[in-house]
Amino acid sequence: MEAIRGFFVRPDPQAQLRKCNTLIRSNIRKLDRDIASVKQVETKTKNLILQADRRGQRDPTRAKQAQKEVRGFARELVRARKTSSRLVTSRAQLNSVGMQVNEAFAVRKIEGSIRASVGIMKDVNTLIKLPELAGTMQELGMELMKAGIIEEMVGESLPEDELGIEEDELADSEVDKVLGEILKDRMDKTGKLPSVPVEPEKKAEEPEEDEAETEAMMDQMRNRLEALRS
């Protein structure tokens, strides 16, 4: 009975607008939390770069390992910054969708009709593809389609290579740029850390605990970034 009545009775525009705004605000709050979380990863990674560099300066025998750690952490920082940039862009798009939706409903109230917006449809289709927003953006898209604000939407997630944070994109030039920013007092004229003299290989006395600890920290940071995308 409700389904039959819903077929003949048009949805209440104000109820539709409230639901759309609720979904938009919910997604904006989620993006704000994700952005704050990535910023924490960035700060922690910067500190790890500085700590690894200081270890290499204090103990020349571990300078080579320290350089490896520094560049490893720099790669994670590049990854985090790409994620942060994508989230900030998504938030701006979502905020734009919110303003356009309210404007569309206001026009509907005055003119008694509503026209599909190509701009909103484009932004919604882009946001639906993001792993962070896929679920609730699908729901928002359905509500906007019911209201006649958009005509169609896409439900597929962006391929990994379109998210802009793939490993092969973390070029050495990007890593060098990050290190030049953080360790500018330590970089040589070429913009790189001073090279480490190659010493004769010595018999290992103890396992490299620092290396295992470093890998564990890097894995932890990667997991935190992956969690933001799931």
Salient structural properties:
230 residues, elongated, 69% helix, mainly alpha, single chain, 7 helices, Snf7_fam, Ferritin
Q: For the report, how would you describe the main beta sheet? A: none
Class by helix and strand content?
Answer: mainly alpha
Number of discrete domains = 1
CATH level 3 topology: Ferritin
* Mean pLDDT over the full residue set: 77
How many distinct beta strands?
Answer: 0
What is the rounded distance between the termini? 39 Å
Radius of gyration: 25 Å
Q: Tell me the series of helices and strands, N- to C-terminal.
A: HHHHHHH
A few lines on this structure:
The protein is mainly α. Helix content is 69%, strand content 0%.
What does this protein structure show overall?
There is one protein chain. With 230 residues, this protein is mainly alpha-helical. The relative contact order is 0.14. It has seven helices and no strands. Residues 206-216 have a biased composition (Acidic residues). Residues 189-230 are annotated as: Disordered. InterPro entries: Snf7_fam. Residues 221-230 have a biased composition (Basic and acidic residues).
Task: Tell me the layout of helices and strands.
Blueprint: H1 2-8, H2 13-58, H3 63-111, H4 118-128, H5 134-147, H6 172-182, H7 209-229
Helix pairs in contact: 2-3, 2-5, 2-7, 3-4, 3-6, 3-7, 4-5
